[in-house]
Amino acid sequence: MAKAETKKARELKSTRVAGLSLTQSLQFKLGLLFLLMLMLLAGGAYLASRTLVHDKLLDENFRYEQQSGLRLTAEIRALIADAQALTGTLANLAADSELRLEQLHDIGPNLLKNRPSASLITSLGIWPEPSQLAGATERSSLYWMRDQDGSMRARGDYNDGRSAPYYRERWYTPARFLSLGRGLWTDRRLEPLVNRYVLTYVMPIHQDGSFAGVATVSLDASALNARFGTIAAQTAGYALLLDGGQRLIGASPAALTALGNNAPPGTTLASLAKSVPAY
After folding, report:
1. CA 80 from chain center: how many Å?
2. Which of 188, 193, 215 is nearest to 202 (CA)?
3. Nearest to residue 204, comparing CAs of 95, 77, 97, 83?
4. pLDDT (tens digit, 9 = 90+) per residue, 231-272?
């Protein structure tokens, strides 16, 4: 009797095992778990690789834009430094007690030869204090201005007694308080003789320890804007060139496209912020 029951139990167990569905088997569950883990690992690897590639591209793009910005800054600084060095040369020549002003009459155009900033320079001048320097009178400036054909010509307009004295001009007065060898840039200003906007570097002329006049070099604001745009075209980022009064002198092509008609030369940053919400 017991033997018969044991045999019957074995047959029942065998029947139950044989009757398990595929989804209930241990082998299936292990295989499903393995597949799930494989999918998770693959997904994690994909996300990780995508993040790494994205971060690398961002990093490379940032370095490229940074280098482009540094190149742009370096080129503009080189042009500015060249104009400042030329102003210093004019001041030193004017301060030479062995030279009379009439001996310097033709020196201006000669000093522009082979200079990096020559194409941007619209005028240069030596402006003595009244009756100071050798050969100076009440008004005895030496002023050279670029004419319509691009040549530098001597002009005597500021020595005309019917005009306001040049030594009372706004760009002249600050030079009285500058130490020897120091200079300053004016804000973007209008040159009345040619109705052209310029930026002028002003440096004092000292002779025997005393203030004796001013030397100037002026850059054409439009030409500087064009040069800045050409250099800045190498970068996709926004770049703005401002004067000391935070007025716009130039902008990169990308910035001009974004700002549209809201950023003509002379626009201040404050007004730009009001007219362009994105700014």
Report:
1. 12
2. 215
3. 95
4. 888 776 778 888 888 888 888 888 888 887 777 888 888 888
Are 123 and 146 a contacting pair, CB within 8 Å? yes
DSSP string, 56-118: HHHHHHHHHHHHHHHHHHHHHHHHHHHHHHHHHHHHHHHH-TT--GGGGTTHHHHHTTT-TTG
Q: Give me the residue label for tokens 């940053």.
A: 269
| Entry pTM | 0.74
Alpha-helical (H) ranges within 112-240 are 221-232
**Beta strands 240-242 and 152-155: pairing type?**
unpaired
Q: Identify the DSSP state of 247.
A: B
Token pair 């020549």: residue? 93
Question: Rounded distance, CA 207 to CA 216, Å?
Answer: 17
